[in-house]
Amino acid sequence: MKNLVNFKTLVLAFGLFSGLVAAQKITSNNVKTTVAGTSTLHAWTMTSTTGSFSGTVSGNTIQDVNYKLVSKTLKSGKGPMDTNAYKAVQADKFPNITFTATSVNMGKGTMTGKLTVTNVTKTISVPVNVTKSGDTYTVWGQANIKMTDYGVTPPAFMMNTVKTGNEITITVNAVAK
Fold it and tell me: Which residues touch 49 (CB under 8 Å, ≥6 apart)?
């Protein structure tokens, strides 16, 4: 009987250990993020390649998904536009835009998580495509949001003759190992 108990304990310990070994922590510090929108003058985009992404791969799932972008790394190539955008998102007071999710599955699907912009956090669902090549994982997602939902007043300039549209598209492409 004692040998049976020891055997069961050994099998349980091996199962727990193999589960821990199978989990793979992945990270990236050069996540490409594009924010696109419209204005009464033209369409516009701002891009950053310095966001961060992390998660833990277990089987066909990435768990504990964390994404962070420092707002002031978004650039349009037009200094005054960047300044207006940073002011609108209160980048000095709230420097980071973050997204967290419990998990995302491999392949095409939807990831639900919490997006925080300024001091407002909302649960959103994001269409995603997650692929694996060797030990590298690519996570691509695109969300459409309204700036006003996150306490951001769409920027306007030139004495309010040029106004930014309220809806923006955020595209994130993370390649993590």
Answer: 30, 31, 32, 33, 73
* C-alpha radius of gyration, the chain, whole number: 21
Residues 6+ apart with CB under 8 A from 122: 114, 115, 149, 150
d(Cα 23, Cα 13) in Å, to the nearest integer? 16
User: What dihedral do alpha carbons 128, 132, 138, 142 form, nearest 10°?
Assistant: -10
Taking 3-state DSSP, the helix, strand and coil percentages for the chain, each rounded to the nearest 5, stand at: 20, 60, 20
Pull the structure tokens for residue 84: 């207006």
Q: Give the tens place of pLDDT for each residue, 96-124.
A: 999 999 999 999 999 999 999 999 999 99
pTM as predicted: 0.86
Question: Tokens 């649960």 appear where?
Answer: 123
